[in-house]
Amino acid sequence: MTKEAELRQSKMLALAFFAGAASLFVLTLFLPQNWWTGLLRAFSEAAMVGALADWFAVVALFKRVPIPIVSRHTEIIPKNKERIADNLALFVREKFLDTESIIALIRRHDPVQKVAEWLVKPANTELLGQQLVRVGSFMLDFIEDSAVQGFIRRAVHEMVNSVDLSKSAGTILESLTRDGRHQELLNEGITQLAHLLDNADTQATISQGIVDWLKEDYAFIERMLPSELIGRKGADLAVRLAAGILNKVAADPRHPLRQRFDVFTQEFIERLKADPSFAGKADEIKAYLLGDETLNGYLAALWEELKGWLKKDLHSEDSSLRKRVIATGAWVGKVLAEDPQLRQSLQDNLEAAARGMAPELAGYLTRHIADTVKQWDDREMSEQIELNIGKDLQYIRINGTIVGGLIGVTLYLLSQVPLLLQ
């Protein structure tokens, strides 16, 4: 049975009670007038009054009752739609969406523990793998749509065009070099260069370079000198000199080489941010990235190959991606189940995120509820509320009929007490 049918049925039942009371009242007019007739008349009169009063109360909630003076206090719900919307939204916000209620909900249900318990079951990780494979397959089909590809291409071009590569690079370098962090990079470079110079192959290369230099520029003298020995000694001398310089730079935070490195770094950053020539180079790079047919063709072919492999794997019964998802899900579940500290940390972070997001989320949902209700048509809103709670309200009319009748009987009996006492 539909809600409309249930509402009509309940209204007919309430009307039947009123009709019964009215029929009883009419009947008492034709019966012999005695004590019992008076009792029935009192019951029927009070029952009709109770039924009519409660009918007025119920109808006045939803519709205008054209009765002088009191009509302005009818049609309560349509007239107060704005206030109802605001109060409903406020009620939802205070009782369901306040921060402490959301935190209590998280603590009561312990979502991290439930996720761990869910993931440790092989059937669930298998289901997770299947669903993610379906999502991945859908996304690949979605991306293949020509309109979507055009949108992605335009978005990428717009993003690249809107980025100032030169200034961005300067800003990034400025952040990376703040508080002398670039000196740590210099220290690492010195360490790596020292290791390189200490390598036997490097020293042999330097020695051979000296010999080759003598043969090319001083061939006559080289034939009279022990060039191999000179090469080894020269390489050893060069390594010791370079190592000495590197050790001095590494040991002295105020070494002139470090200061020159600071100046060079700062000047380079400023040039990146302000020099037109650097900006021009950056524009050339962007134009090359966006317009070079060879590069874009290579990237397109690479993407097509990757996409083809992904689609083939996703549709395979023995999908390696699905296996990896399943294995990863099982591993995550196992780690969460065995590590209470990790679960507590995730729980704390979840609560912290809820505390940060709850006020904004509550405000958005509150505005959404209030605005939605305010946009409803007055009559439609009234009809929908009546449709959902009107059935229960009809029982108020039925109860009013019965209670009114009982009150009438009670008053009639009280009125007969003096007669009985005589």
Features of the shown structure:
single chain; 422 residues; mainly alpha; elongated; DUF445 family protein; membrane
- Class by alpha and beta content: mainly alpha
What string gives the helices and strands in order? HHHHHHHHHHHHHHHHHHH
Global shape: elongated
Helix tally? Answer: 19
Strand content: under 5%
Major sheet = none
- Uncertain stretches: none
User: What is the arithmetic mean of pLDDT?
Assistant: 78
Distance between the termini: 58 Å
**Strands, count:** 0
Helix content: over 70%
How big is the Rg? 44 Å
Keywords: Membrane, Transmembrane, Transmembrane helix
Pfam family, one: DUF445
Transmembrane segments: 12-31, 43-62, 395-414
Protein name: DUF445 family protein
Q: Secondary structure elements and their pairing?
A:
Elements: H1 3-30, H2 35-62, H3 76-79, H4 81-96, H5 99-109, H6 111-119, H7 122-144, H8 146-162, H9 165-176, H10 181-197, H11 200-217, H12 219-224, H13 227-251, H14 256-274, H15 276-291, H16 293-314, H17 320-338, H18 340-375, H19 378-421
Helix pairs in contact: 1-2, 1-19, 2-19, 4-18, 5-18, 6-17, 7-16, 7-17, 9-14, 10-13, 11-13
